[in-house]
Amino acid sequence: MTDDDPATDDRAVILVSGGMDSATAVYEAIDRGYEPYFFHTSYGQETETKERECAEALAEAVDAADFCHVETRHLAAIGASSLTDAEMDVADADLDGEEIPTSYVPFRNANLLSMATSYAEANDCSAVFIGAHSEDFSGYPDCRPDFFDAFQRVMDVGTKPETAIELVAPFVEWSKTDIAERGLELDVPYGITWSCYREEAPACGTCDACAFRLQAFQRAGVEDPIDYAERPDYLDE
After folding, report:
1. DSSP letters of 169-210?
2. Any idea which of 59-63, 66-70, 101-105, 178-182 has the lowest mean pLDDT?
3. What pLDDT does 9 receive?
4. Would you give the distance in Å from CA 109 to the centre of its chain?
5. Is the confidence at residue 26, as pLDDT, over 80?
6. Per UniProt, where does ATP bind (predicted)?
């Protein structure tokens, strides 16, 4: 796994959720010279329709080489996450919490990266990009640098001998604010991205995903362009 690859003329699969981190990863990959292949999954999350709409809009905006959408309903069937289980409420934001949040989908990134690697190998792509970052891995175990390093080894030994696919997590040591600032430099169209865990319109403004996103824009000194039911001030959090 690397976070500092040189620009190439190769193809890259990008895991695109429809959110701001993955959208920034798309523009980062393009800036490094990669042709983008979008990989998007619906896994029973509350806002899956909105997320797919945003991912498709982004693919159109960048003229993506391909858009692969996969249904991964087994994650909802497995459950144990407030994103997929109707019996569990999405908690209000706790930006300083040290416990793994209920929004954690067990081992989700291993599932998604496995499929993205299959897609990459089938399309002769030389990289898989994921937009995970430091504030993710403080709560989600499958967003840690050690996890990506280990998964790179899985990719190396589990593909054809002639296959060489690099797992690229360009923001793994960055904060959400760093990502927002980089995205603003790259002119990422954040108005067609979605982060809210609870609602498809307007965003709630009070779940973890909304709070981290609003805080990042507030720290960057730019207004988040999407609509919110509430816009709390998270600068002092």
Report:
1. -TTTT--HHHHHHHHHHTT--GGG----SS-SSSB-S-BHHH
2. 101-105
3. 58
4. 10
5. yes
6. 16-26
Backbone dihedral region of 44: left (phi > 0), alpha (psi from -120 to 50 degrees) or beta? left
Domain spanning 11-195 has what CATH number?
3.40.50.620
| Domain residue ranges in the chain | 11-195
CA distances from 66 to 39, 112, 122, 222 (A): 8, 17, 12, 32
Binding positions for ATP are: 16-26
- Inter-residue contact 167 to 161 (CB < 8 Å): no
Using CA atoms, how far apart are residues 212 and 142, in angstroms rounded to an integer?
18
Kindly report the length of the chain.
Answer: 237
pTM, rounded to two decimals:
0.93
- In the annotated binding site for Zn(2+), the residues are 196, 204, 207, 210
* Residue pointed to by tokens 């990959």: 29
118 class by beta-carbon count within 10 Å (0-12 exposed, 13-18 middle, 19+ buried):
middle
- Residues of the binding site: 16-26, 196, 204, 207, 210
Q: Is the peptide bond before 202 cis (omega within 30 degrees of 0)?
A: yes
DSSP three-state, residue 40 = strand
Q: What is the pLDDT of residues 174-233, one digit of tens each?
A: 999 999 999 999 999 999 999 999 999 999 999 999 999 999 999 999 999 999 999 999
First and final C-alpha spacing in the chain:
31
For strands 11-15 and 66-71, give the pairing.
Answer: unpaired
Helix axes 208-220, 176-185, angle to 10 degrees: 60
